[in-house]
Amino acid sequence: MGDNPPIMQMPQTRSARILMAALLLTLAGVTTALYIALNQPWLGLTLSSRADAYSPGIEVLHVARNGPAAAIAQGSRLLSISAGGQRVALQPSDLIEEPDYFDTYAEVERFFQRQTQIAALQARPLLLSWQDPAGQVFEQAVTPLPNRPLASLPFVFWFQLLCGGVALLVGAWVYALKPKGWPGRLLALSGLLFLPNTYSAAIYSTRELALPGGLFELLSAINHLGALGFGGALAALFLVYPARLAAAKWLWPVPIIVVGWWAMDAARLAPNVSWGVRIPLLLEILLAVALAVVQWRRSAMRAADRAALRWFMLSAMLGAFTFVVFTFGSRMIGVFTPMQQGYAFGFFLAMYLGLALGVGRYHLFDLDRWAYRLLLWVLGLGLIVVLDMLLVLLLNWRHDLSLILTLLLAGLLYLPMRQWLWGRMMQGELPPIDKLLPEIISVAFTAQTLERERRWLGLLDRLYQPLHNLPMPPSEADTAPGLAQDGMELRIAPAGGLAARRLQGRSAGQRLFTVNDADLATSLVTLFNQAAAGRDALETGVQQERDRIASDLHDDIGAKLLTLRHLVHGEREQAMLMTTIDQLRAIVRGLRQAVQPWEEFAADIRSETAQRLAAAGMALDWPPPLIGGLSAARLPPQDAAQQYHLRALLQEAVSNAIRHARASRVSVRLSIVDATRMRLDVFDDGIGIDPQHAATGHGLTSMQIRARALGGQIAWRRNIDRTPSSAPTDEAAESAAPPSGRGTWVELVFPLGPVHAI
Hints:
Layout: H1 12-38, E1 45-47, E2 58-63, E3 77-83, E4 86-89, H2 105-122, E5 126-131, E6 137-142, H3 155-177, H4 182-205, H5 213-240, H6 253-266, H7 273-298, H8 303-333, H9 341-360, H10 364-393, H11 399-425, H12 433-444, H13 449-464, E7 468-471, E8 482-484, E9 489-492, E10 501-504, H14 506-509, H15 515-567, H16 571-591, H17 598-615, E11 619-621, E12 627-628, H18 640-661, E13 665-672, E14 677-684, H19 691-694, H20 701-709, E15 713-718, H21 731-735, E16 744-751
Parallel strand pairs: 11-13, 12-13
Antiparallel strand pairs: 1-2, 2-3, 3-4, 3-5, 5-6, 7-10, 8-9, 9-10, 13-14, 14-16, 15-16
Helix pairs in contact: 1-3, 1-4, 2-5, 3-4, 3-9, 4-5, 4-9, 5-6, 5-7, 6-7, 7-8, 8-9, 8-10, 10-11, 12-15, 15-16, 16-18, 17-18, 18-20
């Protein structure tokens, strides 16, 4: 549904080149990482970095059966390595994943020096000293393999390569979608920097025992550059997206600051390790959050931008929160084993993917719902962690007991809170279709087309609260209904003979239309069409019955009246018969719902009126044009009911003039007031009428009923008081109006359009 994505509008060669370059760069990175990781000596041991204050050495978690040190028992502790008269006692800190673990550069330097020493020994025939689980110490001569087998690389190594590769490819994909804008460039740059950040960490964090200090230091520097660059690109992204907060020239200081700070860290000029990497990275993230808040405030009426920002913020919160919980927080509360840093990159990858989805605006209309659901899951996890932490730290409970109670309390507290939060977050959610069915049927069965359209538009406005509810342009008449413009517009198919609509700006422009909105609109149109079909079938049945009655009146009663006309010779009786026959014709015509063009209709009723007045010895003043004002060809089509009521009302007015006015002349004017209204004026030169008595006297009640059926207003005045409330727009018609004087003036003003039945 909706518009084609931007990638379909750009040259395929360009997108292919971008994606191919990203793929080749990823493969080059994987090849380089594998070469460095495999080109290291191998003992066949999987060692643990967990410290044990009561045991010396390093715990052996796993021993490769085909490795050089296969004789060492699993669960033993590796105490030392010796070669060429040099001996190094091993300690858990030798296996620290990340040098940033230390606080001072002096500690980092000693760590690298020790890595260099261990790596130099590991490349030579060794004497291993180890202690088995029973406490007995052994020594064994071992010759490490010069290269590490591919199968020995742990899963976390491949996971980090996957995170970096996916980040780069996703960034390239977004850049291919938006190659000319800064958002796409910055996201691609962040992916490019995330790759060396993860690939370097994959090499040194999964080392068997040690790496040469120079290589380790180089990889650590690359890792720091990638981390600082990623944070800088993230902050710069929020500086220009979704709205530009500053000119593009303000982006150039960002890489200068990042590279300068990185160089200061690499040269050990920062006050300490925290100020070298951790604090600047934290400041970059805080700056990004601050800029995101500013973007949020500026996007109050831009629903698409807000949807992207909401996804951005949630992605960042999820990435940061889960990283803290599964790395640092887990150590403190002791609920589960701290996660390896390599796996924690997955949380940052999730954040990155969220940013990419927002910038690429992929299914932007669904991001709100996804974001809210993800937020609820994060809140549930946070509640469990906080409750467990409080029970463990404040009440000093056992971890197993606290976890059981935490899960129980979370279930009791969170589930009701979740329903309440979901209702608050999804305000404006649509009611179920079964609740709307009675209203849809009522709207579809509305007799008047204009009123039916008004109620249909009112229903759409109430459900979706759009900024604009517009008819579909003729040029887009064949456009498929559904979502368009990233959810900013909802296109609704024609319903029950009413034109297709385009709704813009959900909830007064504060939200996007979603797939659920489109699905409900489709259901509404389907039900409306079904109800309209039922209405049409009912009207067809009614019309068939009317035709039958009209045929009976015409063929039976009409024939008898015509026969009676030849048997009656008196002028008065002849006049009464002709009047009755004319009225019967009008009734038959109304029953058959015969619609006439306006010119033909006006000529017909003028001829009929002239015959009746001539039979009564009275003159008719109805000069051309028969319809004053706008051309009758420009009038909207009218239904037969309106013409029937108008004809009957004119007949009644003329009958009153014949019977009661004692007039010699009747003047009629049918004119157009404006594009929506028409008027009928009937004047006579008789004795006049008392306006106060008009509503009750002379059988005028039926004229009032018909005026209401037309949706108009009727008034009776003395001709001497003629001051039309709505003067005809046609000057010729006005000039042809009879002069003021004695007699009665009937004025009817009514709207153009379908009318009520009586």
